[in-house]
Specification:
The chain is mostly helical. The chain is 59% helix and 10% strand. The mean pLDDT is 95.
Length: 144
């Protein structure tokens, strides 16, 4: 079993019915992707996505309490990586060298830190541009 580093996009697909939700759930529950790792700000990004879905009407307010329980369960299954000087320097390099947005650069730098702790960790993201950057810096990708 290989744990995964979870980008926000993959975690959202676990909570909402999306095109690759079944692959994400398979990674999490059948392939040992959980417990795993994620960035300290992933759950802030998830809160933003939830608020956006509420505002646009694709998420009913009545579903919110069950969704919050699921988010807390995910948070409990993931080790949160907090930025240190090395992660911040790595993220700055990713912005400059790979042209990543700051949030994506921080996700990638955090994933690299997780790989330093546990060499077999796989990067789980549904963002193809971010997956290309992960490959470019030597991270193994989860099959999603």
């Amino acid at each position: 079993m290989k744990p995964a580093y979870w980008d926000t996009s993959a975690l959202l697909a676990m909570l909402f019915q999306e095109a690759r939700s079944s692959q994400v759930r398979h990674l999490a529950f059948q392939e040992g992707g959980l417990p795993g790792y994620t960035s300290f700000f992933t759950f802030i990004e998830m809160e933003s996505a939830i608020a956006r879905r509420l505002a646009e009407g694709s998420l009913a307010r009545g579903a919110l309490s069950k969704l919050r329980v699921e988010v807390r369960e995910l948070e409990g299954a993931l080790a949160l990586l907090w930025p240190d000087h090395e992660i911040l320097a790595d993220a700055r390099r990713h912005v400059a060298e790979l042209g990543l947005r700051p949030a994506d650069a921080l996700q990638l730098a955090s994933a690299r830190a997780a790989a330093d702790v546990e060499a077999r960790v796989r990067f789980a993201s549904l963002d193809e541009r971010l997956n290309e950057a992960a490959r470019a810096v030597g991270l193994g990708l989860a099959a999603l």
